[in-house]
Amino acid sequence: MIENMPKIELHCHLDGSLRDETVLEIVSGENLFSELSLSDIEKVKKVLIAPKDSDSLLDYLKSFDLPVGIMQTRESLERVSFELMEDAFEENIKYIEVRFAPLLHTKKGLDVKDVIESVLLGIHKAEEIYDIKGSLILGCMRNMSEEDAVLVIEEGKRFLGAGVVAVDLCGPEEEGFCMKYKKAFALAKEYGYRITVHAGEAASGVNVLDAVTELGAERIGHGVRTNDSKEIYELVKRKNITLEMCPTSNVQTNAVKSFEEHPFYDFYRDGLRVTINTDNRTVSDVTLSSEIDFVLNYYNMTDEDYYCIYKYAVEASFTNEDTKRWLLSFL
Fold it and tell me: Would you indicate the residue range of the signal peptide (predicted)?
């Protein structure tokens, strides 16, 4: 049974993974988004869950306006991060790397330090109660400046070794975006951050190449366009760059036209290091269990295949060696 298998999630956005009930409670309690008339769970779901056939990544990203809007206090940030960890534990996820963009949560006066601290508090509280471990990846939005990225990297530095493990570039994807952030990511690497970058999702595989060669990416978020050219493909394969793949999300955002055209299985069969992830549990209306179940059945994969992918996730995780040994003990 998929539910009983140990799991690891490397690509999960906090603001895309809120409970419907929590959103309704916070909206009602703080009198937010009154123009949307969010009076019951079904109305909340309609706003939170993106269409199955979004026109594009930009269209899909509209579903984040509501969750980001309620994640503007210490209390809400701690609560939603704790609840995500709790939900993950319920489906036997042993380790999860949660990512979010701190600058999106400063609209009501919190500074970046407050924001990061609040999310870490929720993660750590869950770790004390449940048999699960979590780490935090700080996202820098690609529609913000390099100075904004540097601000996040500088403010997050104090939390390295205390829950924060890596930095990411996320949000709308344009061609050649990596060149804009070279200095910021060089600084991140100097400070000891690990590097993952969303690339090759809504633009060409050249962004995957740039993320690896210019920004030092060790992992790529999505990377469905990695096969755009032999040069890019061979680089990813040769350097053992892990692809954080999210098939349901990729079809939903029109990054690929259909599951039949999704490169996940071809990549796996050829020895590329692929992992299975939700991307956004609420926005894509998935769990890691449902995503794994779908992928294994759709591509007629075996339990042995799954445990190979699980090992890839262990090896690619940005956690310490003790935690990696612990994760391998479940096999």
Answer: none
